[in-house]
C-alpha cells in the first residue's frame, strides 16, 4: 500500500464514519426523505379498496344545501342516529365535537331572548337532551379533541391491560381535552380522540396514534374505540417489548391484533378514495325514506359520521397525494385493521440501515482505492439496485418500511469523495510527471503517456523518423579549462537553450549524451512535415547559440566562441519503450539513427554546422541548401549525399543566395573535372558566401581538400542547389 492509498483509505473511512453517525442521529431532513420514499411506495402499490363493513355518512355540500348550514341542531343529529340504528348500523361514530350546548335548542333560544316565564322555558325541548336520549343504549362512539388549556379528561369506557413494561409514557401526550356535553358523555357507548397527527409537523397524515396518554391513563382513538364497541369488547390488551420500557408493539382489541410503532401509532396504508365508501347524510335523512342501496351499505357496518364540506376545514393530505376528509382516515384505519394489511417499520430497521451505510461505504472506499473507480461505481450501482429491489419487495411482500435512500445517498457521497481523492492524487502525480519529464519529452508524448492505456509498455514500432544529433565542438578542450561544477553549469545553459527548440517544433527529446543531444520527429504521434520542422529547430539552435555567444552567456569571453554541429537524417527506425519493466526509456534505434549520428560527425570534416542527408533534403521545401558532397560514413558501404543548410525560406528566395547557388554549382562542376577554373569559382563562391552566411567561409576553405566527395557523376540535386 502506497502512502497516497493509505491516506485515501483513512480519509474515506473517516467520511464513512461521519455519514454513519449522521444517519444514527437521524436529522429531520433524512426523516422527511424517508417519509417521501414510503409515500412513493404507497402510490406505486396502494392498499386495494375492499368491500368491508365500514362506511362514512358524509355531511356533504348536498346535505348542507338541503338541511341548512353547519352546525346542525342536535335534534337532527338525534334523527340521524335513529335512522342509522333503524338501518342496522353496527356502530355509529361521530368525527364531530360536541363541546358546547346547542344554541339552536328551543330552550336555549327562549332563554337568550328573555321575558318568558322560566317555568315555561324549562318545559321547552332541549336538543342536547334529545340527542343524549337518542344515543343511550345504542352503539354510539363520540369523539374528543386535544386542547392545550384546561384539565378536562374524558371518561374511558374500556379497560387497559398490558404485558411487559409500563406503556404509559410511550404514546403521544394528552395535556387536556375538549369537553363533551355531560349527558352525551354519560350515554355514549365509547369515547375516542379524533386527532390524526397531534405531534407531527407534516401536513401529510402517515401514522395515526391509536392511543394517547396523560401519564396515568390511556385513551383510545375514535377508530379503535369504534372497533371495540362493534365487537362488544371491554378491554384493550397492549403488548410491549421485553425488558424495554415505554414501548408498545401490539394493540389487541377483541379478535384483532394491530401492530404499531413504539409510540402506539398505526402506519396508514391508504387506499384510493372510492364513492362506495360514502353515503350522503341527505340520503339517510331523506323525508321519503332510505333507498335500498343506502340501507344495504349501512346495515352491519361501522359508520363514521363526518363532513367533506370544504368550508368546515376537515381536509387532510394522504401519502397518495390526495386531499380527503378527516373522517375518511378514521374509516380507513378500521378498514386496514379488518383487512389485515399493515405497514410496519421494525425495531431493527434503523440498525440495518446504519450498518448497510457503514459496510457499503467501507467496501466502496477499498474498491475505489485499490481496484478502480469504475469497478467501485459498478459495485455501487449493484448495491443501489439491490437496495431498491430489497426495499420494494419488503414493502410489497411483507409491508415492511425499509429505507433504501439513505444507504444509496450516503454510498454515493462516499464513492464521490473516494473517487475525487483518487483523481486528485492521479492529477497530482500527472503534474509530477510533467514537472519531471516536461523538459525532456514533447507535449504530444506527455499527452500520450497520460491518456493512452498501456502507453508505458516495452516494445516498439517501425516508423519513418527525422533524427537529429547535436554535439558541442571542442568540448574536451572546454572541459579541461573548467572545474566540474562549471562544466555542468555550461552544459545546462547550452543544452537547456537548444532543447527548447526541439519541443517548440513538435519534436521528442530522446536523451542527453554528455555534451550531445539526440532528438527525433514523427513519434510517438504523427507530425506532418517533420523533416522541415527538424531543420527549423536546427536553424533556431544556430540563432540561439549566436545570441548566447554574443551575450557571453558562458563566461568564456568574446575570443572563445562555442560551436556546435548538427546532423539530420530521415529514415526508417524502430521507436518505443526500451529497457526493463522497472526502468525504460522512450527511444529510437536502427540504421537511420546511426546515419544521423555520423552526419553530425561529418560536420567537422565539412566545416559547417548543419548538415542533412539527401532523403531529408528531398522532403524539404523552401530551404537554402548547398551540395556538401557524398561522404563515406563510418559503417556504411556506400557514400551518403549531404547538404549544408544555409538558411530558411527567406534566404532561399533572396537574390544573394540565388547567385551563390549558381557559383556553387559552377565550383562543383569544375571540381569534378579538375578544371583550372576551380580556383576562380572558389574565390567567387567565398565572396558570395560572405554576403549570405559568414559560416560558409570554412565550408569553402575545405572544399578543395574534399574533391573525392564530389564524384564526376553530375546530380540534378547539386545543380539545383536545393
TrEMBL record:
BP-aspect Gene Ontology terms: cyclic nucleotide biosynthetic process; intracellular signal transduction
InterPro entries: A/G_cyclase, Adenylyl/Guanylyl_Cyclase_3/4, CHASE2, Nucleotide_cyclase
Keywords: Membrane, Transmembrane, Transmembrane helix
GO molecular function, one term: adenylate cyclase activity
Pfam families the record matches: CHASE2, Guanylate_cyc
The UniProt record lists the keyword Cell wall biogenesis/degradation: no
Domain Guanylate cyclase: 466-600
Transmembrane segments: 348-367, 374-395, 407-425
Domain of life: Bacteria
Protein name: Adenylate cyclase
Organism: Sinorhizobium alkalisoli
